[in-house]
Design a protein that fits this description.
The protein is mostly beta strands and about 775 residues long. It folds into five domains: about 160 residues, Sandwich (Jelly Rolls); about 100 residues, Immunoglobulins (Immunoglobulin-like, Sandwich), CATH 2.60.40.10; about 260 residues, TIM Barrel (Alpha-Beta Barrel), CATH 3.20.20; about 90 residues, Immunoglobulins (Immunoglobulin-like, Sandwich); about 90 residues, Immunoglobulin-like. The protein is built from nine helices and 48 strands. The strands form 13 sheets. The protein has a six-stranded antiparallel sheet with strand order 3-2-4-10-7-8. Strands 27-26-25-24-23-30 form a six-stranded parallel sheet, covered by helices on one side. A five-stranded mixed sheet has the order 41-48-47-43-45, with no helix packed on it. The chain binds beta-D-galactopyranose (GAL). The site of beta-D-galactopyranose (GAL) has 10 residues, from loops.
């Protein structure tokens, strides 16, 4: 039997590295400080920091005491993610290394363990942007941060153990379904031993199928046939089963492996994307896995929350894990809630030398072996995002992906038109929609250049997405997916001027509309979900790309409602007018045209006491969208007149279902402080986000309020990031992490203008 134990607490860390740390017999507590995982090598400010500050070699240590009874067993340590290169030593002996910050790796410690004694584990972590490791070597528009930023496990097992299990599902649309289980073993000695594998399929606790096989190789495939009454996994009904594989030798259990699986058929065709035989228009956003202050180092709950935000707050059906394999917890949650995933290998535009390219193949392998059992993943991205065509490399990445996983199609994100199609799906970043700005620049400046030159000829005001055949250069349609749009074409801060915020939102709506109108486009995944920290070469100069439909704290911009309002009204009624409601915020004054993102049938609008009328979704301009926005184009008075309150009432099937009010004279009334979760878990690090909003007397966020707040966290928790914060556009959030102990976390938020707020979180 194997024992698997998370070892995420009581690590020791120093941000620097000296050779002498490797062989030191003790952990010098003057140099090393105790930390917990996930850990970032440097806590960064929210913005305006040196983008080199985390690019350093640092050192982690941990004492491992492995009892004598385990002598003769195999002792593994499993790392889920270390940025970007790690060397692992036990008692001064080097036992392994790993290149690549996004794929897991396992080191066999057995040879150097002193059983029953303290062993010193040392991990040297190189978080510099090493040219031999993708995505590095060129520039990249995001930060990769540093440290042991995902969890670590200790695994004590027999000398024959399970390396990986891949469960493939077949005959999904038939009455009787079938699975094939690819089982790979590690046999350290006794290579010819006969092993028995027992596979059990469970629906919740109930066994619904089993099969057993004897074999002596280190790889075998086991089928389980005639599976009946299986519920399919889909976006509205993400039904999961559990498959357990046990291996036995002479009736003694050696190892076991449990994975969740879903029965679903996902297929891109030239006329769209099909899930279980049903066509679905894909609507999604790209996600970077980064957070303020701690970069990538966020534990399970925060990862899960991001998936929930994308699915439930934004109403998306797909996410692209730009530009690398993301946290297992994020993907697990996507499986649980029915959020489809396009996952891709690490990389950004640059392709390095032969060694670098070998690493690309390692990354394809690492990604697929880790994630092949997630039903949510429907496509592997096997190109370096936006790189040039490279026939030899991409023939290899595609062949490898197809060999490792014949059940999924491949994609590979490009910005190139007429690019060589080696993948199953032509995945393209289509930044053509520019609101007419390219045309303007081409006319007004001499050396206008963009990296996507062919777009110069296109009118990006009128053309919202290009015709697939024009992009592929082929005379027939092929499976086709738009994987980015907007982003740098129109960076927008949450508190930007109303017209800009509105245009930002409309661009997202227009592209989705165009995608919905073209049956040869499987869907469109916008750039991007959340603002993110970036290098000096990108972003707004403060090390932030304001490309999200939400800010870095996951607080929505108006553009978020272009998506959210597409939700089925039965799921949630949405009514979000794009306005800060004032006479003088927009150029020339007024609030017209007033865009209202809603899934209601129509709305009534009152200006003060005056009924301005009934307004309907604009089905002409947005014929493709499930729920076009309502656009109010009636004037609300002229400059110099008294300003009034506003009231919007939404109706579904003739019934009033929602209303929203705005005051002519907003007064700071309440500082709302709300935690996403009020019960956290003791033990390994747990976190929750706390959102702070300055509200007026009608409960609306005050978009330009920038007051300072002071946050105090006491009890069994710690604040992540600074104690002194200022509201950004009337709101901000922070994360609080547990210390590991059970008990309560007390959070106090003070400010000059508002009454002090206190909340409690319990850690159980
Ligand atoms: C793309 C790139 C993304 C991001 C985006 C900004 O070219 O793939 O990573 O930089 O532009 O719009």
């Amino acid at each position: 039997m194997s024992i698997v134990k998370g070892i995420n607490n009581h690590w020791y860390f120093t941000p620097d590295f000296k050779e002498s740390y490797i062989t030191a017999q003790e952990i010098d507590l003057n140099v090393f400080k105790e930390v917990r995982l996930p850990h970032t090598n440097v806590e960064l400010p929210y913005n305006y920091f040196d983008d080199k500050s985390f690019q350093r070699i640092s050192c982690y240590k941990k004492i491992l005491n492995i009892p004598k009874e385990y002598k003769g067993k195999t002792i593994y340590i499993d790392f889920e993610g270390v940025m970007a290169y790690a060397e692992v030593y036990l008692n001064g002996i080097k036992l392994g290394e790993h290149k690549g910050g996004y794929t897991p790796f396992t080191i066999d410690l057995s040879g150097a363990v002193k059983f029953g004694k303290d062993n010193i584990l040392t991990v040297v972590v190189d978080s510099t942007e090493r040219e031999d490791i993708p995505p590095f070597g060129g520039v990249i528009d995001y930060l990769t941060f540093g440290g042991i930023y995902r969890e670590v496990h200790l695994r004590i097992t027999e000398n024959i153990n399970i390396e990986n299990v891949f469960v493939k599902t077949f005959d999904i649309l038939q009455e009787e379904k079938r699975i094939e289980i690819d089982l790979s073993l590690i046999k350290k000695d006794n290579k010819n031993d006969v092993i028995q594998a027992i596979c059990v399929l469970r629906d919740k606790e109930k066994e619904i199928g089993n099969v057993s096989k004897e074999f002596s190789e280190d790889f075998t495939t086991i089928s389980m046939d005639h599976l009946q009454d299986i519920q399919l996994w889909d976006i509205n009904h993400p039904y999961l089963y559990e498959l357990e594989v046990k291996i036995l030798k002479n009736d003694k259990e050696f190892d076991s492996y449990t994975t969740r699986i879903g029965f679903r058929e996902a297929f891109f065709k030239s006329d769209g994307f099909y899930l279980n035989g049903k066509k679905i228009k894909l609507m999604g956003l790209n996600r970077h896995q980064s957070y303020p202050y701690v970069g990538y180092a966020m534990p399970k709950r925060a990862q899960q929350k991001d998936a929930d935000i994308l699915k439930y707050e934004l109403g998306l059906n797909i996410v692209r894990t730009s530009h690398y394999p993301q946290s297992r917890h994020f993907l697990d949650r996507c499986d649980e809630i029915g959020l489809l995933v396009f996952e891709e290998i690490p990389g950004w535009q640059h392709i390095g030398d032969a060694i670098w390219q070998e690493q690309v193949l390692e990354d394809v392998k690492g990604m697929i072996l880790r994630d092949c059992n997630h039903p949510s993943i429907i496509l592997w991205g096997v190109r370096i995002n936006e790189s040039q065509d490279n026939h030899d490399l991409y023939v290899k990445t595609n062949a490898l992906a197809r060999k490792l996983d014949p059940t999924r199609q491949t994609g590979g994100v490009r910005f190139l038109v007429h690019s060589e199609l080696l993948e199953d799906v032509y995945t393209i970043n289509d930044f053509v929609h520019d609101g007419g700005y390219r045309k303007y620049l081409a006319k007004n400046i001499k050396n206008f250049a963009t990296y996507d030159q062919p777009m110069k000829e296109i009118d990006g005001e009128k053309v919202i997405l290009r015709e697939p055949k024009m992009v592929t250069g082929l005379d027939h349609y092929v499976p086709y997916l738009v994987t980015e749009y907007n982003g740098h074409m129109y960076p927008t801060k949450r508190y930007d001027q109303e017209e800009r915020a509105m245009e930002h939102a409309l661009r997202h709506a227009r592209v989705q509309n165009a995608s919905h109108l073209n049956e040869h486009i499987s869907g469109a995944i916008g750039w991007c979900a959340f603002d993110y920290n970036t290098h000096a070469d990108f972003g707004s100069g403060d090390k932030i790309c304001y490309h999200g439909v939400m800010d870095m704290f996951r607080i929505p911009k108006f553009a978020a409602y272009a998506y959210k309002s597409q939700k089925d009204v039965k799921e949630e009624v949405v009514l979000e007018p794009v306005t800060y409601w004032s006479r003088g915020e927009r150029s020339i004054g007024g609030v017209i045209p007033l865009v209202i993102f809603t899934n209601c049938d129509y709305i009534d609008f009152y200006y003060g006491e005056e009924y301005k009328g009934r307004f309907y979704p604009d089905k002409e301009k947005f014929a493709g969208l499930p729920h076009p926005p309502v656009i109010v184009d009636e004037l609300t008075g002229y400059w110099g007149m008294k300003w009034e309150d506003a009231r919007f009432i939404g109706y579904v099937e003739e019934k009033e279902v929602i209303h929203k009010k705005y005051t002519r004279n907003p007064i700071p009334t309440e500082l709302e402080v709300a935690a996403d979760d009020t019960i956290l878990c003791a033990g390994d690090m747990d976190v929750t986000r706390v959102v702070v909003k300055a509200l007026d007397q009608y409960g609306n966020i005050m978009p330009f309020l920038t007051d300072g707040i002071y946050v105090e966290v006491t009890g069994n928790g710690e604040l992540i990031g600074p104690k002194y914060l200022s509201l950004i556009g009337g709101s901000i959030a922070f994360w609080v992490r547990t210390t590991g102990e059970k008990g309560n976390i007390h959070i106090k938020v003070c400010s000059e203008r508002f009454k002090e707020k206190q909340i409690e979180i319990s850690v159980e």
